[in-house]
Write a structure and sequence with these properties.
CATH superfamily of the largest domain: Ribosomal protein L1/L10, domain II
CATH topology of the largest domain: Rossmann fold
CATH architecture of the largest domain: 3-Layer(aba) Sandwich
Number of domains: 2
Strand content: 5-15%
Low-confidence stretches: none
């Protein structure tokens, strides 16, 4: 017995064209046009990228900035030295340092949500693995938290 769909669902499906791929802009317009709930609805996106994730140069990683944020202020700690300190401060990092920040964290300071580091300081940060690692705060190139000094902003 086939599932019965509501009038609202059938009206939304009538707006769609079968077997047609929509551009992202068209899809957003279609979502706005067919939205009829009395609450903020969730939208799921499926993209076909033709990228092969087995190749390192074709892996997709990125960050999306949401229009209304996440609802809380994220405190960022940046392990940087030299010119990168000023770049991190200009970018909005609240906690910036090198050896001094390592010592503060070893002393129990953990009042931040995210850590970013430059590659030249990863040797010094390595000894913080027990402290930062179990909290998921250890900078890692795979997660994009180890960045070149000119990419901090």
């Amino acid at each position: 017995m086939p599932a019965k769909h509501s009038k609202r669902f059938r009206a939304a499906v009538d707006e769609l064209e079968d077997a047609r791929f929509y551009t992202p802009a068209e899809a957003v317009e279609l979502v706005k046009k067919t939205a009829s709930a009395k609450f903020d609805e969730t939208v799921e996106i499926h993209l076909r990228t033709n990228a092969d994730p087995r190749h390192a140069d074709q892996q997709l990683r990125g960050v999306a900035t949401l229009p209304h944020g996440l609802g809380k202020n994220v405190r960022v700690a940046v392990f940087a030295a030299g010119e990168a300190v000023r770049a991190a401060t200009d970018a909005g990092a609240e906690i910036v340092g090198a050896d001094d920040l390592v010592e503060r964290i070893e002393g129990g300071f953990l009042d931040f949500d995210v850590t970013i580091a430059t590659p030249d300081l990863m040797g010094k940060i390595g000894k913080l693995g027990r402290i930062l690692g179990r909290r998921g705060l250890m900078p890692n190139p795979r997660t994009g938290t180890v960045v070149q000094p000119n990419d901090i902003a």
